[in-house]
Amino acid sequence: MDNQFFKNIEKKTGVNMKDIFDLANSLQNANFKDAQTVRGVIRRVSQIANKPVSKDMEDKIVESIVKDGKQLDFNQISKMINKK
């Protein structure tokens, strides 16, 4: 991929692409039926995006993924985080 492409994304979002790639690599073999793993992912995404997630919201996301058997859907997680 074009390095300038990633620089443009970093500039627009303020998110370091290396952090995104590191996160993506860590998700490849992650067990999303394990609440501790899911919490770790939520915290990492929150940190990368510089968007704090309350304990209550974290619990809801974990429940949605682990207990309800839903697949990991970043769009749904984003909607839950941005819901006011």
TrEMBL record:
Highest taxon, organism lineage: Bacteria
Pfam families from the UniProt entry? SpoVIF
**Record InterPro entries:** SpoVIF
Q: What is this protein called?
A: Sporulation protein
Annotated organism of origin: Mesobacillus campisalis
